[in-house]
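Posting this for the archive.
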Amino acid sequence: MRISVGSVVPSLFILAFLAGCPVAPAGAGDAAVPDALSGGGGEGGSAGASGAPGGKPLAYGCAANAECASGFCVDGVCCDSACDQQCASCGLPGRPGYCTGQIVGDDLAAAMPCTGAKTCSLDLTSPTIVSCRLKNAEACTSNAQCATNNCATFYVDEDNDGYGGSATLHLCAPVRGAAPKGYSTIGGDCCDVDSLTFPGQTAWEDYINACGSWDYNCDGTVETQSPTSGAMPPASYCGKTVFVNTKMGCH
């Protein structure tokens, strides 16, 4: 029996249709696949992103406003708005083409760039949920000024014993972050030029500290005399050698 090609082709289409397979019309080829970077129309990209009048749709790559149907080319993609406010971007992962708050990093493209001493950060008190605020290690006076929302107090630690004196420095820093070199997160050192004197000190010495005091634990009082042997001498002997093999200290 002779079977013509013309009778086989329609039969194949019918079988494919019944099997649930998609059947593209003749000549469709790759032209149905849009090119996100060139604007569609296959490899040439000359037909426009999607045939939309005026230019490419949102999220398509661009180099100038005139290329986009929206009229806005921002951060290398067609955007839904000018998106030129601080800490906003049209190129964030998962949101290309839509102006979205930028919660980390500098924003150099804004009309007023957020860079230098400041950076973008999450700010739940702002209507846009983002703000351009001070970076870590920048001087501050309140938590609201800092990208970490933490204006920390550090105490100058001249003797490096882990406790600072009365002099302070306020810097933006991570919550519970370490103090900069030469500073401590703990104050209260009553003699910050003597590393053996600090709050909570339990040892005692045989001589007055560098500040001329027997107050080694910074509790504001001269500690009780503690002889190593023998009877208790007068308070005036504190820290001195008295009798034989006996020294007085302050604990």
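The chain is about 5% helix and 15% strand. The radius of gyration is 38 Å.
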